[in-house]
Each structure stands twice: as structure tokens, then as C-alpha cells.
Design goal:
Layout: H1 7-37, H2 47-58, E1 66-67, E2 70-71, H3 81-85, H4 91-103, H5 122-137
Helix pairs in contact: 2-5, 4-5
């Protein structure tokens, strides 16, 4: 190989490298599109789950909690909270457990971070429970990395 690069050599390296990375980009884009469209999560959405997401947003739960790693890291990850509580297969038990938890806040335990009392209605708590059940059912590919969230 020559010690000096000619204009034609530089042009060929540029075009060859550009073509290589364009092909990589298109392949990864196609793989991502296929993966996203193959996920069955939209089939399980209903009005209660959507209303629960609205409760989550209106009360700014994301300011303290995370879901699938998105949000603040002040309070626990909630992507698998229903599995941790052992109620992921029973919507009524999920509602009762979440209602008991929400109504007991703030707990008043000295030295522990306190969750505020939001005074949610039973319907809002049920919707929030259904939203958290839906989040728990999403394939997160191993997130969170520990069962404790």
C-alpha cells in the first residue's frame, strides 16, 4: 500500500464507509420496527388502564417513582410492584392491596421517606391498580434488574 493517500483512495474509503453504515442503520431500523410492532401490549389496553395512567400523571407519581427506569429515583420502581406484592394475577386483590397502601400514607415512621396522602377515590385507586397491573404485564426484557425494583 502507498504511503500517501490519493484523492481517489480517500473518496473510495468515504463512499465505502458511508454505504456500510447506511446498510447497518437500515438493518437496525428494520429490526427495531419489527420488534416494536410484534409486541402485544396494545391488545390489553382498556379504559380503566388509560384512566389509571391519567391518575399517575395528574398526581405526578413520576416525580418520585420510576416505571421501567423512567422517572425519579426517590421512591421504588413500580414496573413489577404487583408481582412483588403477589397480586399480579388477581385484579381485585391488587386493588385491595393498593388501596390499603395508599390509605396508610404517610406512614409516620421516623427516618423513612414519606409518601403523601393523595385522597384518591376508590375508582381512581382501581384504575391506578389496573394501570400498574398492565405495566407489570409488559415484557421489559429483564427490567428491573432486581426483584426489589
Amino acid at each position: 500500500m502507498r504511503e500517501v493517500m490519493t484523492k481517489s483512495m480517500a473518496r473510495n474509503i468515504f463512499y465505502g464507509g458511508s454505504l456500510f453504515f447506511i446498510i447497518i442503520f437500515l438493518g437496525l431500523s428494520a429490526q427495531s420496527t419489527f420488534y416494536i410492532t410484534s409486541q402485544p401490549t396494545n391488545d390489553t389496553l382498556n379504559d380503566s388502564v388509560i384512566a389509571g395512567k391519567r391518575v399517575w400523571e395528574e398526581n405526578a407519581c413520576i416525580n418520585c417513582h420510576t416505571i421501567m427506569g423512567e422517572g425519579a429515583y426517590f421512591a421504588p420502581e413500580l414496573a413489577n410492584v404487583m408481582t412483588r406484592w403477589g397480586v399480579a394475577d388477581d385484579p381485585e386483590a391488587a386493588f385491595e392491596t393498593l388501596k390499603g397502601w395508599m390509605e396508610s400514607q404517610p406512614s409516620g415512621i421516623e427516618g423513612r421517606r414519606q409518601m403523601p396522602q393523595f385522597n384518591l377515590t376508590d375508582e381512581q385507586i382501581r384504575n391506578l391498580a389496573n394501570f400498574l397491573l398492565w405495566v407489570d404485564s409488559v415484557d421489559t426484557q429483564g427490567w428491573p434488574p432486581t426483584d426489589a425494583g
